[in-house]
Amino acid sequence: MTVVTAIASRHFTRPLEQLYLPAMERARRAAALSLVSAGKSVEACQAYILLALYGKPVRKWEEDRCWLYSGLAIRMATDLNLHRIPPPSQQRPEKVEREMLNRTRVWLVCFNLDRSFSTQFGRPPTILNAFPEPRRWWCCAGENGAWNDPYDLGSCAFAEVMVLMTAFQEHIFRDASAASGLDRSVNLEAATREYDAKLKELEAYWQPLLDGWMQDHRGCRYRARLFPFCTAYSRLVMFSFGFQEAFVRGAIGDADNIWFAQCLEAASTIIETMTRDLACEVCE
Description:
Elements: H1 2-8, H2 20-37, H3 42-53, H4 66-79, H5 94-121, H6 134-143, H7 151-172, H8 188-212, H9 218-249, H10 257-283
Helix pairs in contact: 1-2, 3-4, 3-5, 4-5, 5-7, 6-7, 7-8, 7-9, 8-9, 9-10
């Protein structure tokens, strides 16, 4: 509750230094104190996730604690065995099934947070194993489940994108003898095209599902508009590796135009989605 209140105080009418900043400092102290004095719980794990997602703005990267809070959330979730995902079942009592689904959702958010931060900050992921079959879990627990949550759809869609991005990075960064890890024996263009095709398949599967829930749930409407941003950002990351390699060689020829063209298209989609779709959603 301390963390939720502190984050929400940012939108109060008072100046930030009067309410939001002191509240966030109190929340951060409470988070640090809970490590040594409070018990482990799913709620505490959720608090660390919120601090990782909605951290206090900082001026320098060295002051940012989002990566550390996400690590705390993942460690606590693992200690609580949230990574052991039980199959959904309608035979259990409602209270038990809801609690088990909530535990799985927390682990799903931890996985998405870990992989997105790894992509954003260029750091290795903390969770080594991928979330097992997000599409199958949604079909069992979300789409056909008795106590589903529409938000599960967006989380599962994003998880599949993160699984694909991890596979792409493992495919091209597998040379242990290289300082960067990049395997230069891999045909980078062929690999990028292959995974870009898989990304398009994910878009074709998930986007209609997200659009189908848009009218009934505002959260899903936001997720549906956010998904093109996520896929475009992933596409930009994939093609940027080839563009960087061509730039390092110093002789960019006609064959390298694909890297610039695809990066430009993905970056344009990101900007358009932010300024057109997501901005309108916030205004609504």
